[in-house]
Amino acid sequence: xxxxxxxxxxxxxxxxxxxxxxxxxxxxxxxxxxxxxxxxxxxxxxxxxxxxxxxxxxxxxxxxxxxxxxxxxxxxxxxxxxxxxxxxxxxxxxxxxxxxxxxxxxx
Length: 107
Description:
By secondary structure, the protein is α+β, with helices and mostly antiparallel strands. It has helices at about 10-20, 30-40, 65-75, 100-105; strands spanning about 5-10, 50-55, 60, 75-85.
């Protein structure tokens, strides 16, 4: 069963999720983590509906960069957390084309 909740995520919580649940994930991209952390610290972080996703077994399947940025920023961030995703959900995350600046401007 999938459960969705809004969570005020402190750096300590993000660090615990990363240490306890983040197995078999892609390598971190330090520049991306730093950019997100900078946005959080400067107040530019926008809640956009992206979720932190956990599989039914508790494995983190989406959100390691955002959680790492919360740790780096030292600030609390509101997140939407989804639990109970199928294990196969990991294979479908971040597989689409990134939105380019041109895409954004054309909207």
